[in-house]
Design brief:
Number of strands: 9
Order of helices and strands: HHEEEHEHEHHHEEHEEH
Strand order of the largest sheet: 7-1-8-9
Strand content: 15-25%
Shape: globular
Radius of gyration: 19 Å
Helix content: 25-40%
Distance between the termini: 41 Å
Structural class: alpha/beta
Largest sheet: 4 strands, antiparallel
């Protein structure tokens, strides 16, 4: 394991690894854990009381952050005809059909998100293994398979996020940058948590939010008491 730098170690002393902080305390403390020279991302991590091996316990969805993520994402739209121009006018970085499928087969991956129209999904099937392993395969449940490409591109450019529970029952979501003010981070925090709570599967028994933690890209994790999160979001 790589040894952490002195600066990180000093900052880490501010965080009690054994303590479960209130959401208010954690949202204050995260701003005190800056250790990088670049503008770090504020990240939320959840471990859920679900077994992702079962289809009825999958947690997958989208959320529109009120204040965006602070990151400019590159969007590729796989479509055809007039919708190519619609996508580009809405702000897509790339839009097209077979030419981009061929480029991806050749190893090109200079994008953060793929949106596709339903008619193009059969063609994208050949890229399932390549895009799927990187979490880039368009999916109706994540809002990335659509006939309204202009609206979808606009939403994702403004801060819409797609998320999915991993095989360990965890979800990681960026909720802004450390140069956001606390109010914006707090509103984004509440929006994400509220959406994940709403997506609790009926098959999930017992405690749903097992662990919740907030951190900066290069900072220590700050554990939040999961039993206090629901009431905080409801305020």
């Amino acid at each position: 394991m790589a040894k952490k730098g002195k600066r990180y170690q000093e900052i880490a002393k501010k965080v009690d690894k054994m303590k479960l902080y209130t959401p208010e305390e954690a949202l204050d403390l995260v701003f005190e854990t800056k250790s990088a020279k670049f503008t770090e991302t504020v990240e939320l991590a959840f471990r859920l009381g679900v077994d992702p091996r079962h289809a009825d316990q999958q947690v997958r969805g989208t959320v529109v952050l009120p204040h965006g993520t602070g990151k400019t994402i590159k969007i590729l739209v796989i479509t055809s005809g007039d919708k190519i121009d619609e996508a580009l006018k809405a702000g897509a970085d790339y839009a097209g059909d077979d030419e981009y499928i061929t480029k991806i087969q050749g190893g090109w991956l200079d994008f953060d998100l793929v949106i596709a129209t339903p008619d193009m999904m059969p063609k994208l099937g050949k890229l399932g293994k390549l895009l799927g392993t990187k979490g880039l395969m368009p999916n109706p449940k994540s809002g990335t398979v659509t006939t309204d490409v202009a609206k979808t591109v606009d939403e994702f450019k403004k801060g819409k996020l797609a998320f999915k529970v991993d095989k360990l029952g965890s979800i990681h979501v960026p909720i802004g940058k450390v140069n956001f003010d606390k109010e914006k981070i707090t509103e984004n925090f509440k929006t994400v948590v509220d959406q994940i709570i709403k997506l609790k599967p009926d098959a999930s028994k017992g405690q749903y939010l097992r662990t919740v933690a907030i951190s900066l890209t290069m900072g220590p994790g700050i554990k939040i008491d999961p039993l206090l999160v629901n009431s905080y979001v409801s305020k």
